[in-house]
């Protein structure tokens, strides 16, 4: 009976999500159930005041990261910054498959690491379309770029898992970096399968090399600089290495003042965060913590957008981003509080003991389920991280490896969340016919990125390039899906089935690796 009662908060949240009541209602119902059962049920609340205050600080930091991340994404979209960067990347690609590798394992992870919320997909899909991919393939390829979600938006989801499991953030980041080789290679194989008709062995080698490079670069950055900036640094390494390789193969990579200004907010965020964390590493003073906080540098990056890209920002953009943040913030806070309450009142331990017969194998599946339903690794970790810890303790397994596997599995599974799939397909279907349906691969006389950007800017403000912005195209595509366009509905269904299949393969592999203990030595070596 206690086991059944312990599952009620999670089941209440899952039921609301299945009934399409939305994440805010689901989080509220789950939290309410946890509160009621704590007050009237067989669970004892054991709270350490210092721990409660620390977790409250984490909730506040996560919410501010989400807020400034969403504002930065809107500002950069309206400023046309990623459109300009995308034009250069499109021009640099020597082949469709090589360009796809750059987008999937460089551009999308970078945009996701900076802002989160699937923004990387809205950046990557238009570039994939311009490389000549059909809409359905471009949507799925863009989703596959979400291989670095544990470090997305500077890693709040991983921070939540670390806090609820009582683990050190950077240690969990390194362990997640080790195990993330599984979803990264699964994504690479999926990219090769989707691009098999291209018959491009060199491009295929670039895909595999890019995937391994991204994995190694993020893991190395996590060891050297800590978890929050690791995704940004790792993705930047992939982008710079591939652009250098393309340049050696004779591709023309051009830049101008607009491109330089577009890179300023990203540069300030990356350099500032790395420098701050290096200066105050290990510092416990509150001011040091604020200086090294990802939310601080996201806010500074937001301030840099109107300075670097003038006449492209107004108050309406910030207001729109803030309005969009409200439901995200409410649901995130609700799930985080529910997960914390379940961990301190013993519910998670009861659930872990109840399924202990399966060892740690259920962990990745629970986290993946939570991510598909909530669309967020933060929500998934808030719901199940403490349960995964209980599974590891009951099975006498390495808790760091168990939580890392669940974190990686849930993060990758977020790509198969139905709203995210609908966004990607809607974006691909609603985009205008690509001006590069016959890309100039290997043609040195193709128009430069500057020329394309200038032609796209004629008669339009920078914030109106490429049909205003990726997010607006995605919203219009989703409206089309809701209006009952058969082809769009069928495309969404096929893409969702494919995404779920890819996620299932990755999750099953990680669930098998945990009990086998194959990753324990590597994790132990890098985190000791």
UniProtKB/TrEMBL annotation:
InterPro entries (UniProt xref): Lactate_perm
Localization in the cell: Cell membrane
Keywords tagged on the record: Cell membrane, Membrane, Transmembrane, Transmembrane helix, Transport
Membrane topology category: Multi-pass membrane protein
TM segment ranges: 50-73, 113-131, 138-165, 171-195, 202-224, 230-246, 258-280, 286-309, 321-344, 350-373, 496-518
Role summary: Uptake of L-lactate across the membrane. Can also transport D-lactate and glycolate.
Main location: membrane
Taxonomy, superkingdom: Bacteria
Family: Belongs to the lactate permease family.
Identification of the protein by name: L-lactate permease
A Pfam family this chain is assigned to: Lactate_perm
Ranges of biased composition (kind: Polar residues): 466-481
Annotated region described as Disordered, given as residue ranges: 432-483
């Amino acid at each position: 009976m206690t086991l059944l009662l312990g599952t009620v908060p999670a089941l209440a949240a899952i039921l609301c999500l299945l009934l399409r009541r939305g994440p805010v209602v689901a989080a509220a119902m789950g939290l309410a159930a946890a509160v009621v059962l704590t007050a009237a049920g067989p669970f004892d609340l054991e709270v350490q005041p210092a721990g409660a205050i620390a977790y409250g600080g984490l909730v506040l930091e996560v919410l501010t990261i989400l807020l400034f991340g969403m504002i930065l994404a809107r500002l950069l979209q309206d400023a046309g910054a990623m459109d300009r960067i995308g034009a250069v990347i499109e021009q640099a690609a020597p082949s469709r498959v090589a360009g796809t590798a750059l987008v999937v394992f460089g551009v999308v992870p970078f945009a996701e690491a900076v802002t989160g919320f699937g923004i990387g997909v809205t950046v990557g899909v238009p570039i994939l379309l311009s490389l000549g991919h059909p809409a359905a393939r471009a949507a799925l390829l863009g989703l596959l770029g979400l291989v670095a979600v544990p470090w997305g938006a500077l890693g709040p989801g991983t921070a939540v898992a670390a806090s609820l499991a009582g683990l050190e953030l950077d240690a969990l980041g390194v362990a997640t970096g080790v195990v993330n080789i599984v979803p990264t290679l699964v994504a690479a194989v999926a990219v090769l399968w989707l691009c098999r008709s291209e018959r491009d062995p060199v491009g295929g080698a670039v895909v595999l090399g890019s995937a391994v490079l991204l994995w190694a670069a993020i893991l190395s950055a996590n060891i050297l600089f800590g978890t929050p900036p690791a995704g940004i640094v790792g993705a930047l390494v992939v982008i710079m290495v591939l652009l250098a390789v393309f340049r050696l193969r004779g591709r023309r990579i051009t830049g101008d003042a607009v491109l330089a200004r577009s890179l300023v907010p990203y540069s300030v965020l990356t350099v500032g965060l790395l420098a701050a964390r290096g200066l105050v590493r290990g510092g416990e003073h509150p001011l040091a913590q604020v200086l090294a906080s990802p939310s601080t540098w996201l806010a500074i990056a937001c301030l840099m957008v109107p300075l670097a890209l003038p006449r492209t920002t107004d108050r309406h953009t910030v207001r729109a981003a803030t309005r969009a943040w409200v439901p995200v913030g409410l649901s995130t806070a609700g799930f985080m509080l529910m997960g914390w309450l379940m961990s301190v009142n013993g519910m998670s331990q009861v659930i872990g003991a109840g399924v202990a017969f399966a060892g740690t194998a259920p962990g990745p599946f629970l986290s993946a389920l939570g991510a598909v339903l909530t669309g967020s690794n933060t929500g998934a970790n808030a719901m199940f991280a403490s349960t995964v810890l209980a599974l590891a303790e009951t099975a006498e397994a390495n808790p760091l490896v168990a939580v890392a596997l669940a974190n990686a599995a849930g993060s990758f599974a977020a790509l198969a969340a139905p709203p995210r799939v609908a966004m990607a397909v809607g974006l691909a279907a609603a985009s205008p016919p690509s001006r590069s349906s016959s890309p100039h691969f290997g043609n040195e006389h193709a128009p430069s990125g500057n020329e394309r950007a200038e032609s796209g800017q004629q008669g339009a403000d920078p914030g109106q390039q490429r049909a205003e912005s990726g997010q607006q195209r995605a919203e219009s595509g989703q409206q089309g899906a809701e209006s009952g366009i058969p082809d769009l509905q069928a495309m969404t269904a096929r893409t969702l089935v494919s995404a779920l299949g890819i996620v299932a393969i990755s999750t099953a592999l990680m669930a098998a690796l945990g009990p086998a203990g194959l990753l324990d030595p590597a994790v132990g070596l890098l985190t000791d």
